[in-house]
Amino acid sequence: MLPSTDRLAQYALEYPFDDEYVIDFKYWAKGQIAAVLSFDDGTADETLDLDSDYELTDPDDTGTLTKISDWNHAATRLTIYRTLELIQETDYRNGEALNMDTLEQDLDYSAARDQQIAEALARAATWPVTDPEGLSAELPSLLLRAGKFAAWNEEGEWAPADGIPGVPVSSSWATILEGEASSFIEAFLDAADAAAAQSTLGVPPTTRKISAGIGLSGGGDLSADRTLSWAPAYSASATYAAGDIVTYDGNVYVCILTGTNQTPAFPSTSYWKWVWSLNVTVSTDDPSGTPDDGDIWITREA
């Protein structure tokens, strides 16, 4: 009798691990049990060794796996499963006595092998039963599918593809999708850290700074968005120190005398030094009117 339809058990792990784990399905030999550790960080599964990493109770309808080594502390899941060889070694002959225990075990083996195959099929990619009959699930040959994407043709069958139809890609990525990864991309993928990747791509580091310059404010490094603005407008009620920058009447001035509260004037005074003008006029004809002091006029020559 095979009392359970299960052939595997899974346990979530968190270090420190438990010492014992229940096997709630039948096994006839200890060698039929496999135990595997899995990880959430992308590390490959690790198969544990019987008598080195764990011990098992004698075969029965259920059992217990006991940890006897220091398992990888990063493991997050333990999978215990039964695996049988897909063979039948009992030879039944006409006229010989039939041992019922042997027959029962062979029938149990048969059901267990069916469970093993059914569980494997449940993990396989299959077509819905509602699809048309005759739809082939056979993959293209190695020569056709090597370096390609897995895709489906108009009939819904497997077909190798160079790219993704309908999805625009840049010329550089098109090269990659065609299976011709350049040394540039290889160097990027092999970069040891973000700084190395930035260097490979030619991307400036976030420590690179934007200097606002005279008459502007809002500079800083590239770790955040920056907005450059004109220096603050002159205020008659304010007191300025040497080095302060203001805008006034379309011009930029820098204070050259601490305690200044006199109005700036073009071109310069003993309190303010004119830096440059914000007034730029571009004309294709001769300008009309008279520019103010400090204005910049650009005109087309006759």
Which characteristics define this entry?
single chain; 302 residues; alpha+beta; four-stranded antiparallel β-sheet; three-stranded antiparallel β-sheet; 5 helices; 23% strand
Strand order of the largest sheet: 1-7-3-4
Unreliable runs:
293-302
Taking the sheet with the most strands, its summary is: 4 strands, antiparallel
* Count of discrete alpha- or pi-helical segments spanning 4 or more residues: 5
Class by SSE composition: alpha+beta
Helices and strands, in order, run as EEEEEEEHHEEHHHEEEEEEEEE
Rg from C-alpha positions? 39 Å
Number of domains: 3
Oligomer: single chain
Task: Please sum up the structure shown.
The protein has 302 residues and is of the alpha+beta class. The chain folds into three domains: 8-86 and 101-122, no CATH class; 169-203, no CATH class; 205-302, Carbohydrate-binding module superfamily 5/12 (Seminal Fluid Protein  PDC-109 (Domain B), Ribbon). Helices cover 16% and strands 23% of the residues.
Report on this model:
The structure is a single chain. This protein starts with 7 loop residues before the first strand and ends with a strand. It is built from five helices and 18 strands. It is α+β, with helices and mostly antiparallel strands. It has helices spanning 100-122, 142-145, 171-177, 183-189, 194-201; strands at residues 8-12, 20-23, 33-38, 46-47, 54-56, 63-67, 77-82, 149-152, 158-161, 209-210, 216-217, 220-221, 229-230, 245-248, 251-255, 272-277, 280-283, 296-299. The protein is elongated and about 125 Å long. Strand 3 (33-38) and strand 4 form a beta hairpin. It folds into three domains: 8-86 and 101-122, no CATH class; 169-203, no CATH class; 205-302, Carbohydrate-binding module superfamily 5/12 (Seminal Fluid Protein  PDC-109 (Domain B)). Helices cover 16% and strands 23% of the residues. The strands form seven sheets. A four-stranded antiparallel sheet has the order 1-7-3-4, with no helix packed on it.
